[in-house]
Amino acid sequence: MKAIGNWSKEILLILMALVFLSPIYIIFINSFKNRRELYENTLAFPEEFGLQYYTAAMERMDFFNAFANSIYVTVVSVIFIVILSSMTAWMLARSDNWVSTVIFMTLIATMLIPFQTIMMPLMQLVTGISRTTGIPLYNTLSGLIFMNIGFHAALSVFLYHGFIKSIPISLEEAATIDGASKFGVFWRVVFPILTPITATVMILNVILIWNDFLLPSLTLIDKELRTIPLSVFYFFGEFTIEWNLAMAGLTLTIIPVVIFYVLAQKYIIKGIGEGAVK
């Protein structure tokens, strides 16, 4: 009976894996088909595996420019999120007073607010600031990076805060006795210990920012500023949808983040387990 139970669990897990992998299979297979093949049977293999639709999709998307924009926005955003969130979490964890508690709980509460409820007031505020002060927040990559930092800080502070609570304060006290400043204590003692949770914060934010469509669609207007998700969206027209090119574009979008996730997935599990639980 125990063997039957183990087999049934394995079969169930395999079926669940197939269900989750089926959208990727459909996207990948249909990226090689022409319109006739695609409409005849979306699940069948194509008559031939050619790269003509990938070439056409890359040209229509201005792929390399969009890829560079996505890389720039993602890397710069994640760097600032890691630096600012880790420092914020450290100060909140080591400040034993009601003010730090209120600030931390407020940050956590913002995680419960759907972006869709604030996106229109946010755009009105951003365009108003850009017009009155000249600060380039709207229709610029720097403005998108600034908003990414704000929207992704709460989750990062939460993860860092839980991890920092597990670090013995005696290490920091010893560094202070040796003459280290607050800045030195954090960067020379605390931050190196945060490596596992830093890896998790980086991976989660890379995936979220790379795949983000809604905020860039509201913020970026010029074609040369489009990120990869925005470029793929323009295969879906008002009256026609170029499914084969769209599937090729989606595959090109998915490949980098899938490779990144596969290489770094163990750090996600380890970091969340050590940070959020402790």
Automatic annotation (TrEMBL):
Protein name: Carbohydrate ABC transporter permease
Entry-linked PROSITE patterns: ABC_TM1
Record PANTHER family: DIACETYLCHITOBIOSE UPTAKE SYSTEM PERMEASE PROTEIN NGCG, MALTOSE TRANSPORT SYSTEM PERMEASE-RELATED
Transmembrane portions of the chain: 12-32, 71-90, 102-123, 143-164, 185-210, 243-264
Protein family according to the UniProt entry: Belongs to the binding-protein-dependent transport system permease family.
Keyword annotations of the record: Cell membrane, Membrane, Transmembrane, Transmembrane helix, Transport
InterPro entries recorded: BP-dep_ABC_trans_perm, MetI-like, MetI-like_sf
Keyword Transport in record: yes
CDD domains: TM_PBP2
Residue span, ABC transmembrane type-1 domain: 67-264
